[in-house]
Specification:
The complex is a heterodimer of chains A (about 110) and B (about 120). Chain A has about 110 residues and is an all-beta fold. In chain A, strands 1, 3, 4, 7, 8 and 9 form a six-stranded mixed beta sheet that branches. Chain A has a three-stranded antiparallel beta sheet with strand order 2-6-5, with no helix packed on it. Chain A has strands spanning about 10, 20-25, 35-40, 45-50, 65-70, 70-75, 85-95, 100, 105-110. In chain A, strand 3 and strand 4 (about 45-50) form a beta hairpin. Chain A is globular, with a radius of gyration of 13 Å. The mean pLDDT of chain A is about 95. Chain B has about 120 residues and is mainly β. Helices cover about 0% and strands about 50% of the residues of chain B. Chain B has strands at about 5, 10, 20-25, 35-40, 45-50, 60, 70-75, 80-85, 90-100, 105-110, 115-120. In chain B, strands 2, 4, 5, 6, 9, 10 and 11 form a seven-stranded mixed beta sheet that branches. A four-stranded antiparallel beta sheet of chain B has the order 1-3-8-7, with no helix packed on it. The mean pLDDT of chain B is about 95. The chains are: A mainly beta (about 110), B mainly beta (about 120). The interface of A and B includes residues 50 and 56 of A.
Chain lengths: ~110, ~120
């Protein structure tokens, strides 16, 4: 059971927009930055978003992040087949003194 | 450019130990903590802990306390993660990772992963 809660799967057609939610509590998302990762099966996670809504260099602006209270959201616009992957949110949990991740969301581009 | 290169796959019997290495390059080794994250087959990411190469301080996930040891060798700029008393549910891909600025900013660089299989 993951500390952060994500939907197991989401899907949308090419060119459309999709959002992935990540729900936590005041000890994690509520008081710490959220980061997001993309993982294509068989490869290491890729850094997508940090500090809730910042994109590392090289990440297209089709990817966006936001946070409100104890929840965070990853948005992807202009969906492409190459976006099919698992997506994870992560943050620091001040009560556990540990990094915590969501269980992951599988994105299918129909 | 920053790279983290890990040791190769390992197969271990239950009760044995495994030691995985991680050799970063492209930045000053003692500037950033090295974190370890594992992923069981078909499962999500699980943070195992970090080590500060500057002073050797560690912070382990409570679940692994007593079975895991993280260490660094500043003469070879290599980080190590040793897991003891292996069980079948320790079968996973083990990643080392470096955070972006600090532990709050997420992991911007990852090793390629090391598959550890625990099987009798």
């Amino acid at each position: 059971q993951s500390v952060l809660t994500q939907p197991p799967s989401v899907s949308a057609a090419p060119g459309q927009k999709v959002t992935i939610s990540c729900s936590g509590s005041s000890s994690n998302i509520g008081n710490n930055y959220v980061s997001w990762y993309q993982q294509i099966p068989g490869t290491a996670p890729k850094f997508l978003i940090y500090e809730n809504n910042q994109r590392p260099s090289g990440i297209p602006d089709r990817f966006s992040g936001s946070k409100s209270g104890t929840s965070a959201t990853l948005g992807i616009t202009g969906l492409q087949s190459g976006d099919e992957a698992d997506y994870y949110c992560g943050t620091w949990d001040s009560s556990l003194s540990a990094v915590v991740f969501g269980g992951g969301t599988k994105l299918t581009v129909l | 450019q920053v790279q983290l290169v890990q040791s190769g796959a390992a197969v271990k019997k239950p009760g044995a130990s495994v030691k995985v290495s991680c050799k970063p390059s492209g930045y000053s080794f003692t500037t950033y903590h090295i974190n370890w994250v594992r992923q069981a087959p078909g499962q999500g990411l699980e943070w195992m802990g970090w080590i500060n190469p500057y002073n050797g301080n560690t912070n382990y996930a409570q679940k692994l306390q007593g079975r895991v040891t993280m260490a660094t060798d500043t003469t070879t700029n290599t980080a190590y993660m040793e897991l003891r008393s292996l069980r079948s549910d320790d079968t996973a891909v083990y990643y080392c990772a470096r955070y972006h600025y600090d532990i709050l900013s997420g992991f911007s660089y990852w090793g390629q992963g090391t598959l550890v299989t625990v099987s009798s």
